[in-house]
Every structure is written in C-alpha cells, then in structure tokens.
Amino acid sequence: MTDATYTCFPLFQRFQDAWKPFLPTIHSHRFDKHNYIINHGDPANHVWLIVTGWVSLLRHTPNGKQVTVGLCTNGDIFGKAALLTQASYPYTGEVLQNETEVIAIPAKTLRQLSQENAEFSNFLMETMNKRMDRVQLKLEQMSSLTAAQRLGCFLLQLCQQQGETSQVSMPIDKHVIASYLGMKPETLSRSFQQLKPLGIQVKQSTITVPDVGKLVEYVCGSCSESGLCDMESDAITAAKE
Amino acid sequence: MTDATYTCFPLFQRFQDAWKPFLPTIHSHRFDKHNYIINHGDPANHVWLIVTGWVSLLRHTPNGKQVTVGLCTNGDIFGKAALLTQASYPYTGEVLQNETEVIAIPAKTLRQLSQENAEFSNFLMETMNKRMDRVQLKLEQMSSLTAAQRLGCFLLQLCQQQGETSQVSMPIDKHVIASYLGMKPETLSRSFQQLKPLGIQVKQSTITVPDVGKLVEYVCGSCSESGLCDMESDAITAAKE
Questions:
Q1: For A35, which DSSP code?
Q2: What is the DSSP string of chain B?
Q3: Interface contact flag, B83 A144, Cβ < 8 Å
Q4: Cα–Cα nearest to B110, from A85, A125, A156, A61
Q5: What angle do CA B101, B104, B110 make, to 5 degrees?
Q6: What distance in Å separates the CA atoms of residue A143 and residue B4, rounded to the nearest whole number?
Q7: Is pLDDT larger for residue A3 or for residue B161?
Q8: For A95, B141, B167, B214, which has the most beta carbons within 10 A of its beta carbon?
Q9: What is the mean pLDDT of chain A?
Q10: What is the pLDDT of residue A239?
C-alpha cells in the first residue's frame, strides 16, 4: 500500500512512520454486490478496513434464520478477531454495493506493530473498547428506545459518518437495515412513517434529514448515553454551523 | 491480598508469580444490598472482581428510565473501562445481595502488569474480546430468540457458572432479571410459564432445571452461536455425566 489517501483513516493517521516498513504487506481489493469477503468460521488472518462501499456482517441460526450483526461503511473496520492468535471470524462479510473497496491488513502485521509501539497498542485497545461500548449501547437501546427512535439513532450515525446534516446516502436493501436494527421490515416502514413529522423523507437510497436538532431531540432524550455521545454532540454542533 | 482462595480465578491463576509483587495493592471489600460500588461517570480507577454475591450494572436515561446492562456474580469482572487511561465508569454498580464480596484491583496495577508481561496482556485482550462476543450475541438474540428462549439461555449460563445441572440459585428481584433480559416483568412471568413443560420450576430464589439437555434443545437451535458456545457444550457434557 502506497496510496497517500489511506492516511486519512485514524488507524494510519497518527502512526504513519511506524506503518512505513509494513505498507508492502497491505493490499486493497474491490468487490461487487453479493460477494463474500470473509466467511463465518474461517481462520481470521486479516483485519479489514472499508475505503468506500457497504458490507453487512451476517450470522445464521441452525433453524435457518439470517441475522445482520453489523453494517459497515467508509472508514469502518471489521474482522478484529484477527487481533487474537488462532481466532476465527465470528461472522460472514457480504458486500452490499458494487465497487466496494476494502484494505486487507494481515493480522501478523498488526500484532507486530502493536508489540513494537505501545501507543499503537493503546490505540487498538481503545478502538476495541469504543466498539464494545457501541454494541452494549445498541443492546440497551433494544429496550430503552422505540423502533422509530432506533432508526433515528442510526440516521444520526450516518449523518456523522458522512459529515452531512441534511442528506445521507444509504444504498442498502430495506430488509438488511431492518435485520440490523432488530426489527421486522414492516416495523421499519412504520418507523419511517413516524419520522415524517420531523421532515425526514426517503427517496430511493437518499434520506433527507432537514433538521438534525429535531431528530436529536426525538431520539436522545430516551438514551442513557445522552450528554456523552459523539453522534449527539456532532449533530448539534453541525446544526448550529 | 494474600488469601490463596483468590488464585482460583483465571485472572490470577495462570500468572501467580507475576502477581506476587502487586498483591499489596489489591484489597477485598464487603457490601450489603442496595449499596453502590461504583457510579456512572466516576473516574475508573479500579477493575472489580466478584468473589461472592450479585451486582447489577445500571444506566439511566434522561427521561428517567433505568436499564440493567449487566448482571454479575461469582468470578465476574466489571469496570474494565479502567484498563484505558482517563476513562470513566460507563455504568453504576449496585449490590443485589447482602455480604457481597468484591476485590478492587487498581487500574495502575493492571496496566503495569500488562506492560511487563505480554502473556498477561494477551489474556486481557482475549477476555475483552470474549465479553464483546457475548454482548454482540445477546444483541443478536434480541431478534433471533423468543423471550422464553432468552430466559432459557440465561439459565444455561447460570448452570455453567454455578457448576450445577439441576438447581441454580438466583437471589435477584424479578424486575431486575426482566430489565437485564430486555423484557417487561409480565413477559418474564409468561416466559417462566413457557419453560414449565421442560420441568423448570421456580421456588423463591431457587430454580430447578431437571433436564439441561431439553433446555439446550429448546434454546440453542435458534441461536447462531450453536456448536461454538461454551454454555451449550458444558451443559451437554454435564448432562451426560
């Protein structure tokens, strides 16, 4: 990997010198919709960073149900199990959009860098911890928020990730979003209806959020992370600008 | 800390020599029901290990709802945020049972030990990852399992933790269990009713599980962790003994 554009990702940004000797081990790949990047149960030899596109993380139950445990887009990292020795991937990674570009970072490289550089090791630990807090919060929101509020929280997250306050792009099938949010497709449709009074509108894969402040008010008052959440504070700051 | 009984916990077991110089920094405390061990937002200076008793991990929403994000008992660790520098506790820890005994391990001690001992550092990383997988699975189960199956999974977990196959002790108020399992108290009562055909009976704080194999069959066929789950395999092994 030599392309300077990658350095915009936090994983590389603060550690550019430390990464230099390892760049030849890192490669970028392009996948089209419905391709699998990793398979549940395979040896976890790489950690994956999405440059552009969408990937869903899936698991299957013995009685044939498919569960979406993650939805990743630009800048997201998946396959972190590879940080542990002899781990296997705990999910399948399916590409949701054509021309999705991902970077494969060998687990060996990350482990070596982590051993050589205490600051980088702390960074990885913090990243894992943040991810853990997010999952824990999502679990909690299953009982503290309504379905429409959970959808609202997901839209706030997209606003933050895409650096947009008025329009976000979500080129994903509705049933995948519903599965990720832990609701039935018909509940997702009803939830979008409930967000209409806030001015939120869906046109194909583009969602208009005309007043982020109103959405924050609708969602965050019911969430125990309120006052501590990046998404909430970023949305409010952006709305004021 | 000098008591040899602590060495039965995995955190100390494999690293007894490495722990020796640090034992004077570790202290044990006893708390009664309704006491708070840690408060949400306080600086996270210690990691806590439960020797005996029960502790619930709580958060509050701005609109006054209380959410139980964790239920910890013998051998469980909480307050892992303390592993990161300048972190604060992401929840309040409330004692659920009189004479609950916990060990307070200074964050500084853990960080120092972790820097000196790469094997211990890996152990911590693995522990965090396992916890992460558990939370992720619990989130997924909110949509893949029914309420009664989620209760059944929790009972299997208690069977495993308490090393029992026929009777488990759960001296916790029903509304705390319901909150932890993300359901209403009336749904919990209905779920216990649904488990009756499997022979499961509740008498005060004791729950009889006469046939763990039947419970595994009822729960695990709907879970994507089936075939990889410790609780499932331990229960089957114990039932065969």
A1: -
A2: ---GGGGGSHHHHTTHHHHGGGGGG-EEEEE-TT-EEE-TTSB--EEEEEEESEEEEEEE-TTS-EEEEEEEETT-EE-GGGGSTT-B-SSEEEE-STTEEEEEEEHHHHHHHHHH-HHHHHHHHHHHHHHHHHHHHHHHHHHHS-HHHHHHHHHHHHHHHHT-SSEEE--S-HHHHHHHTTS-HHHHHHHHHHHGGGT-EEETTEEE-S-HHHHHHHHHTT-TTTTT-HHHHHHHHHHH-
A3: no
A4: A125
A5: 145
A6: 42
A7: B161
A8: B141
A9: 89
A10: 64
Q: How many CB atoms lie within 10 A of CB A32?
A: 11
Q: What is the pLDDT of residues A184-230, one digit of tens each?
A: 999 999 999 999 999 999 998 999 999 999 999 999 999 988 887 88
pLDDT per position as a tens digit, B1-21 = 555 667 788 899 889 999 999
Do B60 and A224 make contact, defined as CB atoms within 8 angstroms? yes
The string of pLDDT tens digits covering residues A109-135 is: 998 998 888 888 888 888 888 888 888
Q: Enumerate chain A positions whose Cβ falls within 8 A of a Cβ in B.
A: 59-63, 65, 67, 69, 80-81, 83-85, 87, 90, 115, 118, 122, 125-126, 128-129, 131-133, 135-136, 138-140, 142-144, 179, 182-183, 220-224, 226-227
Question: Which chain B residues are closer than 8 Å to A229 by Cβ?
Answer: none
pLDDT digits (tens, 9 = 90+) for A15-58: 999 999 999 999 999 999 999 999 999 999 999 999 999 999 99
Percent of residues, chain B, with pLDDT higher than 90: 56
The dihedral formed by the CA atoms of A26, A27, A31 and A36, expressed in degrees to the nearest 10 = -40
Cα B144 to Cα B139: distance, rounded to the nearest angstrom: 9
Within 8 A of A112 by CB-CB distance, chain B residues are none
Cβ–Cβ below 8 Å for B83 and A129: yes
Angle between helices A107-116 and A118-144 (to 10 degrees): 120
At A241, is the pLDDT very low, low, confident or very high (cuts 50, 70, 90)? Answer: low
Of B140, B149, B125, residue with least CA distance to B198: B149
Minimal Cβ distance to B67: which of A67, A84, A140: A140
- Cβ–Cβ under 8 Å, residues A164 and A234: no
pLDDT, tens digit (0-9, with 9 covering 90-100), for B184-215:
999 999 999 999 999 999 998 999 999 999 99
Whole-prediction pTM value? 0.85
